[in-house]
Structures are given as structure tokens and as C-alpha cells.
Amino acid sequence: MPGAGGRPEVSVVIPCYDQGHFLGEAIDSVLAQEGPSVEVVVVDDGSTDRTAEVARRRKGVVLVRQRNRGLAAARNRGLTASRGRFVVFLDADDRLAPAALAASAAALDRRPDHAFVYGRFRNISVRGRPLGTARQEPLASDHYRHLLEKNFIPSPGMVMFRRELFDRIGGFRSSRRLQGSEDYDLYLRATRSFPVCGHGRLVLERRRHEGSMSRRADRMFRHTLAVHRRQWRHARRDPELRRAYRVGREWYRSWFGEQLVTETQLVRERAGWPAVLPRLVTLARYYRCGLRALLGGLPESNHVVFPVVAGEIPGPPAAIAEPPVRGSLTIVGLHPDHCVVGRGFNRRPDGLSVLEISCRNATSRTTAILGGRPVPTRVLGADRVTIVVPDELVERETAWPLYLLK
């Protein structure tokens, strides 16, 4: 509903392509918001389903229709059609959490120099059931540096933008090379030049299902690296940014590489090797250790999970560590060619959790696969290796196998 002077306080732009079965929930989650005046702009990006019909049934919704031009173009079209001081881009399969717009608008009002603010999200199932909320602490500063290391804003629905930002840096870049990562590109461009902040409130329910953009590992792998690679010319002259860039590049290779290995295995089982050739090419280019594991296979029968008993190592040699930090994660496992023993966790000055282990015949090519995906390692000597343990694994109360490959 419009505010004083007929202009809404917040515009929520919802691009939609054949997601009409989720669109009603997205719109209703916006219309149920209390606080600032809001307008809803739905951009039908050439849908072949009931998207337009669903939008028309909701009173006050602005419907914009165009031929299919992609997500970035649809968001930009919605931005042009909207009028609010602040703008939120909500994916059609997601939902706003109660009071999300009020929390973000208040945060932006308190910080007139900030380009955007962001909140927290939680995942929901295809039927809308909550799947849990990962730890998401707002950063105090250096958002550009942290975004070089990892995109900690996985969905634009977490963000409320100040409209003037787009006058300064432009909208979402529409390019096939960036498809699915246009929001990450926008965050990087914004934080390079303007302050931003997080307010810590839950603002988004992000739906996880097979059709979601972020589930397409092959595309996301290539396009996220393409976005990240664009930042090198900005990062290379600053030692801290250069380090962050390299950390991020390794993180993305590991994160998307392991997802792509899993996706490739599933597609190969259904459709055979010819169907996965493009994925194999991506693995060969960016993630060769995953390709080796995929083609050669890991000897799962040789991996045994042992319980921790008062810090002792029961049974055959294995890697066992119980971290003296948050959570009760236990890392266990063995590889037939390695004898590894946990030395325990410590928290480095940069905030990363590190596990130091002894490893027979360690080499610079040693790769650790933890929780089903590779993690950064550093060889300290002939028999010592450090493994960077992602916080999301440290937080979990579960056991993860640790594989060491060479």
C-alpha cells in the first residue's frame, strides 16, 4: 500500500519463470508484512504456466510481462517498474519472514550512508517446512574482503537495497557467463565502494528443491568462478584482498567441486557417461582431485568409523579428534595408505578452525576430504598437515569421515 505522497516505502520485486505453484506464497508473505508501506511487482519472465493468473488474483500487485530474458533482466525490469525508496528482490519460490521488511527498513533508516542491509535466512523444504537455520553472525566491517572469501549472502531476498545504489553502479549484469551469480556480482560491486551492514534478524525463508537455481552445480561452479575472477584486478594490489581472493577461489573450487561430483554421479547413474561429459570437462578444468575420485572411486569398504572413548584411539589407526570449541563434532576415519592421528582444534587469528594431524609421507599434493568435500590443507613437514575445518562442520553434532588423498 502506498505511503505518504503515494510513493511506497519498499518495493518487493518478484521475478518468476514457471514457478507459479510457489508464487502465491511469495506474494502473500509480502502482503502480510507490517510496518513500512510496500508495493509488490511481479515480473513474468515469459512463463508458460499460471504465473500471470496467480499474480492477478492478488489485489494491488503490479504485473509486468516480458518474453523470457533471464533472471537478471527480469530483476532489472522490475526495478524500473517499481517506485519504492528501498528495494528487495524476492525469488518466486522463497518467502519473506514476518517483520522482515520492518527490520531491514529500520536498519537502512539508521544508516543513511549504507548501500544495503542484510538479514538472516533459514532453509525450508519444497512444502514449506523449516529445515533449520545455519549460524549467521553479521559482520562488523570489511564486507568486500569477506565476500571475496565467500558469498555469505546466498539469496538476494536477504537484502534490502537503497534505490540510489543502482543509479551509481547500475543493475544486475545480464550475461550468460554470470547466470545464477548475478547477485554475487552486484554485492561485490556495491561493497567495493559503499558501506553495508547486517542486522541479524531472520528475513527470508529459502526453499530448497530440485528446480532451484542454486542446485545446478555445473553452472553455478563456472559462473561463480567467473564473477570471482573479475575481482582480481581490484584485489591484486592489496595484500589482504589478494589473500582473501585466493582463499575464496580455493573455497569455491572445493564447495562447488564436491557438489558437482555428487551431481555427476547421480546423472551418470540415470543417463550414462555421455550425459555427464560437460560436467567432466568442468571438473577437469577446475577440480581435478574430484575428477580423480569420481573416475577412480574411493575405497569405501576400507573406511571405518570409530567412537571416541576418553580421547583414546580404539581399534586400527584412525583420525580421531574432538574439538574444544563450539558443538561436539568428532572427525573420524582412515585411509589404507595413511596413518593419521588428530592433534585437536585451535582457532586461528583469522577465525578459522584448524585441525593438525600427523600423516605418514605427507606431500604438498595431499588433499583432505572432510564431510564429503575437500577442504584447504597445508603441509607443515614430513609428517604433519593442517586442515581448515569449515565452521558449519564444527557446529554440527555428528561424525564425519576424513579421507586423505595424494
Summary, kept brief:
This protein is of the alpha/beta class and 406 residues long.
Index terms:
single chain; alpha/beta; Spore Coat Polysaccharide Biosynthesis Protein SpsA, Chain A; Immunoglobulin-like; 9-stranded mixed β-sheet
Task: Please provide a written account of the structure.
This protein has three domains: 4-212, Spore Coat Polysaccharide Biosynthesis Protein SpsA, Chain A (Alpha-Beta Complex), CATH 3.90.550.10; 228-297, no CATH class; 302-405, Immunoglobulin-like (Sandwich), CATH 2.60.40. The longest helix has 33 residues, at 239-271. It has helices at 20-31, 51-56, 71-81, 100-110, 143-149, 164-169, 182-193, 217-229, 232-235, 239-271, 277-286, 288-296, 391-395, and strands at residues 10-16, 38-45, 62-66, 86-89, 95-96, 116-124, 130-132, 159-162, 196-207, 330-332, 340-347, 353-359, 367-370, 373-375, 377-379, 384-389, 399-405. The chain contains 13 helices and 17 strands. The strands form three sheets. Strands 1, 2, 3, 4, 5, 6, 7, 8 and 9 form a nine-stranded mixed beta sheet that branches. Helix 11 packs across helix 12 (288-296). The model is unreliable at 298-346 and 395-401 (pLDDT under 50). The chain has 406 residues and is of the alpha/beta class. The chain starts with 9 loop residues before the first strand and ends with a strand. 41% of the residues are buried.
Number of strands: 17
SS class: alpha/beta
| Helix content, binned percent | 25-40%
* Uncertain residue ranges: 298-346, 395-401
Strand content: 15-25%
Query: Number of folding domains?
Result: 3
**Can you count the helices?**
13
Largest sheet, in brief, is:
9 strands, mixed
